[in-house]
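Sample intake sheet
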Amino acid sequence: MKEKKNKKTEKEKPFNEVDFFIKYEGGELADDEVIDGFQHLIDSGLVWQLQGSYGRMAENLIDAGLCHISKKKIK
């Protein structure tokens, strides 16, 4: 994972799962981007439908208190 990016200099963009997967697999994301991305995948429920390593990473982030299980489901 890379160093944090300055959120003030970046405009908010809609979450793009494909871009997230490519950048995550390539090690191109800062820690906060990984956490935010996994929180989105948890909120949508998609993380539990992906290959096992994504679900395990989500569980590790939840156990560490960095992500949480959401009752809301986004589409």
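Comment: The helical segments are 17-25, 31-44, 52-63. Residues 17-75 form one domain.
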